[in-house]
Amino acid sequence: MNKLLRLVAAPFLAAAVMVAALSTPASADTVDSDPQIAAEWQTAWDTYHFSDTTPPAPGSGRSRVTTSISVTIDASIRHVFDAYSNINNHIGRAAFLKRVVTHKDYYYCGLRYIDFTAIEDVPFEGTVVSLKTHAQQRINRDRFFYETDTWSEPNVVTHQKITFVKAAGGKTTVTERLTFDADASLIDFVVANGVASHQQTQTAVKQAIESGQL
Predict the structure, then answer these.
(1) What angle do CA 191, 151, 100 make, to 5 degrees?
(2) Stretch 17-37: mean pLDDT, rounded?
(3) pLDDT per residue over 56-100, tens digit each?
(4) Is the pTM of this model over 0.70?
């Protein structure tokens, strides 16, 4: 699976690396501080409004694709929801995810809002490239669903709604509805890589829950 992800992601990563190189001097010894990452999150939020679900305008050069993936986990809905909705439980299970920097965690109108940045260390052409995905998660624990909007270079936006439904035998079915917005030239790679990555995470979290690790 990791080999497939690297092959599928290569053109997308190349574009991301080029954009990052143009905007930030490269340094293997430089690690952004949490306040620096928080400032980047705020700039991305203000500039790209990645919680906006308006479809790309005709002629904008951008495309949108929506798809769904599901998994059934042998555990109660409350347990699955609490474990699965905790992004920190995806570290080491989501492809390349190494760290999560939480900028703000608060409640508004009955929902829990978490503003965070996911840090991924991605192998690329003999080196490791650190990529940031800025995100806002909104958790509705009473109705067993959460939503996450993300933005990452090169101007890729995702809208995710993850729902949890009781299944027979005390199991829980988790369905992720994934919407990807990107430049038309990148959309196929973004969708293929994004879906593969989410499927890997689903499988790993399922195994961790059913084995008692989570």
Answers:
(1) 105
(2) 58
(3) 999 999 999 999 999 999 999 999 999 999 999 999 998 789 999
(4) yes
How far, in Å, CA of 149 to CA of 135, rounded?
Answer: 5
Task: Give the span between the Cα atoms of 51 and 148, in whole angstroms.
Answer: 8
pLDDT for 78 equals: 98
User: Residue 174 CA to chain centroid, in angstroms?
Assistant: 16
Judge whether residue 45 has pLDDT over 70: yes
CB 115 within 8 A of CB 104: yes
Beta strands in 27-155 (DSSP E): 62-73, 97-108, 111-124, 127-140, 145-152
- Other beta carbons less than 10 A from residue 168's beta carbon: 7
Residue 18 CB partners (closer than 8 Å, separation 6+)? 154
Angle at alpha carbon of residue 152, lines to 11 and 22, rounded to 5°: 70
DSSP alpha helix (H) spans, 57-181: 77-84
- Indicate the pLDDT class of residue 185, thresholds 50, 70 and 90: very high
The structure tokens 């439980």 sit at 89
Inter-residue contact 160 to 68 (CB < 8 Å): no
Tokens 């790679």 label which residue?
Answer: 189
CA 162/CA 140 separation, integer angstroms? 10
